[in-house]
Amino acid sequence: MEELTLEREDLTSVTACALIGALNHELSERYPEDGANHFRLEPDEVAEGLGLFLVARSAGRAIACGALRMLDSRCAEIKRMYVVPEFRGRGVARRVLARLEAESARLGASRLVLETGARQPESLALYGRAGFVRIPAFGEYLDSPLSVCLAKQL
Hints:
This protein is α+β, with helices and mostly antiparallel strands. The chain has helices at residues 14-30, 92-106, 121-129; strands spanning 4-8, 51-58, 61-70, 75-83, 111-117, 133-135, 147-153. The relative contact order is 0.16. It is 27% helix and 32% strand.
């Protein structure tokens, strides 16, 4: 794989919208139930000083994304992690996650939380290898029976 670059991207950019659209499509296939929710992320939540929307590129092609939003002054949440299927298994998600962790520490967070789904074993494995542990559902995920919430102390 070509050299991987990781750069901040505007959440409303064409690139961001394409990656999020692909993620939402995949989630809809894994969770076809009525009422399944992909949960929201707003541009102001990832503004400089509050969070980050990150795009990974290989040879100029956008191949992955991830976001970080501060929930309060000490806790940040990982959101919208996605890697284009043909680039999975190459350490791209690990690199995106590491950059998001570094950004959360820069913003003052001492704890990271996230939500993934029960039907996403590869995500659960990635986060487990990165030191995340299961926690009770929080926030907007309280009424989501297929959500798996995880946390990590920084």
